[in-house]
Amino acid sequence: MRAATLVSALFWTAASAQTILPPQRGAESFSRGSLGVLKCEVRQLPPELDFSFRFRAGYSVSVPLNQYHGAGHRWTVLVRLQSAAAGQPVYFVDRLRLPDVPSTRITGEAGGGYLLGLGSYRASFLLRDDQSRTCRAEWNIDARLRPADRHVKLAMERGTAAELSLRGWRSEGPVADPPLSRLTVLLNAAPVGLSRSTMQASDAVTLLGALSSLLRLAPADSVRLVVFNLDRQKEIYRKDHFTLDQLDAVRQAIFNLQLGVVDYQTLRHPEGRADLLEGLVNRELEAEDRADAVVFLGPHARWEDRPAPAIGTRGASTPRFFYLEYQQPATLASAVARGRGRMGRATSLRDIPSGVNAQGDVFNTYPTDDGLWASATPFLPDTPHDTIDRLVAGLKGKTLVVTTPSEFSRAMKQISGGK
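Given the sequence above, the corresponding structure tokens read:
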């Protein structure tokens, strides 16, 4: 349990955004000498178009914690991004505090990110610890649109880099006449990947970024935000009149959750997941300031519980219910490898001609670095219904599965317009 808590803390410290350094200070920091080499492994997080229509990219770094002991250890992480379109490089800095480190063989992991416009970049990475030991790495970044997203209007200029803000893109002014008077968002704080049971820094950035985009694209006069976790069967944050400048409090609430630890009583009460969801819904139905729309937001849940069929009483003023279900898009290659996709008899994508799948259906493709053809439009495995989907269906609501920014934008129109 101690090890799980420690690794979780290292992940979540990195969920805060990096900040930009003045060019001179950044250059000086990169040129400083080192008193030793810090053992670490750095991995690039390739650029992805996020729900605010900007490319989100970054890194993860793994450090064996047997190089530390006790309290007070710190990391300073610097990233230099040089655009191929020339101009001055942009320097990012993040300062991380390690929790108390016991004698251990585990590896601590952290991550960071930044926002990019279209184009090619050269990234230089430097981690310096409190003992002036350093770890360095370099890699190339190619931020480009997939064929399916070429119609998307990007929110950043080509060749530019910016801080990873959890508040969505910079506002261009107030939105006149919000289509919704009251909106409730029920955020499922869960790992984005179906195969993971613990959250990572990238999960927090994805979920909070989706939340900020939802509130931008489906504005309301008043927003109630409730954050919950099905594994722990508990509500972890609630705020009426929520605004995006309170997003850091949401991040802290998720951090405090410590998903890696599940108590014994929770394991003995598996029906508690459905009870939690029914309680959240009934509270919305009984509220005096009842919302126009209630939106469940989060990744596909790992559970398939069936909530009580008689939940709630729907009347003339009952909110419209939606489930904005995020599913990670899978390439055709990964779908075939898992044997869960719609590829039928296919065993290798190298056997499939460009533009036609194993069942004869046409799809858009593009070549990947390993010589395979991947789907330009998201290729979803056959995913079963989860407990939230079943609940929303019982309330005569609508589940909107989103895998791309384009789908997210279309879903927002349904939520705000009621279509």
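Residues 1-16, 166-176, 331-381 have pLDDT under 50 and may be disordered. Try to locate this feature in the token string yourself.
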